[in-house]
Amino acid sequence: MLKVIQSPSKYIQGPGALSHIGRYTKMIAGHVFVIADNFVMSLIGDTVSNSLEEHEVTSHFEIFNGECSSSEIERLSAILVSNQCQAVIGLGGGKTLDTAKAIAYESKIPIIISPTLASTDAPTSALSVLYTELGKFDRYLRYPQNPDIVLMDTSIVAKAPVRLFVAGMGDALATYFEARANSSAHKPTMAGGATSTTALALAKLCYETLIAEGYKAKLAVEAGVSTLAVENIVEANTYLSGIGFESAGLAAAHAIHNGFTVLEECHHLYHGEKVAFGTLTQLILENSSSEELEAVLDFCVQVGLPVTLEQLGLRDSEKLHQKIMQVAIASCSEEETIHNMPFAVTPDQVYAAILATDRMGQDWLY
Ligand SMILES: [Zn+2]
User: Fold this and answer.
1) 124 alpha carbon – ligand 1 mean position (Å)
2) Bind-site residues for glycerol
3) d(CA 165, CA 168)
4) Structural domain tally of the chain?
5) Which domain, by its residues, includes 26?
6) Most buried residue among 170, 289, 308, 341 by CB atoms closer than 10 A?
7) Which positions fall inside the Alcohol dehydrogenase iron-type/glycerol dehydrogenase GldA domain (predicted)?
């Protein structure tokens, strides 16, 4: 199998980065289509338009309606075409960015992504998640290329809610362990090839950065400021984890996350919160060393990621075991990345690993 690494062409990060967006946009387009939801537009719309003007890039701004659906993509695409824009800029959270990727792809023009959160590793990827107009999961859209530019303004990211920043660390926590499992199983990654030593090294750096900087960064974000630790975590949550999951592989942690989405009780959780618990469960499945498990548990407890079922919103009830079995079955469905583990995984094993994780988490907390 060939090795494949894919990534955005340019990744730009730092405090005040948005006030330079015009300079980087100018390199690829003279007239751009900018989308953001109402809140983000009022927060940073002026910064972006001033920077574009400063670099003589003309623009058309449009408000995103809040759902990454086929009809919204069609509506925005039509406006883009009638304005003859040469590139798209998406500003905001996951749904806005996914919509921006989709409309740029429809028109075969470059895309610039500027996330206002570091809550997942999706921004750098060649992937969008499509929803129905009512907000139910519809399908994935996969693109032949990653975004042309990903620009993270850390002074904006540091002001976002702490829980979202921590959730980003939960998503990034899985990256190395899933990459390690996927690569030892010799399974293809999302990039469509084998894991390279480069991607594996980035995934490992992602984990090491979280352990070294995560807690310090969380405290700084609680104070509403960006420090060097915050800078390093934003890079780990977004770039290292993004390249890691796409080019080094996914395995059990994300499949177990997907399993938990079948339970109503877990709908209030962020992606990265469920992924963190899925990571611990993957380590139990692999019978990872006590040393490694303790390091991951310590990290989760320090930054505030869930380590027990109760923290996931699941209380002890008659039906609890039945619900965990539902999660286990869903996480082992045919298309799931759990089958990238280096051994065959059954729902019974996942069920046992989830309950063992919960017990270990309780023991760690109390
Ligand atoms: Zn993820």
Assistant:
1) 12
2) 121, 171, 254, 271
3) 5
4) 2
5) 10-158
6) 170
7) 8-154
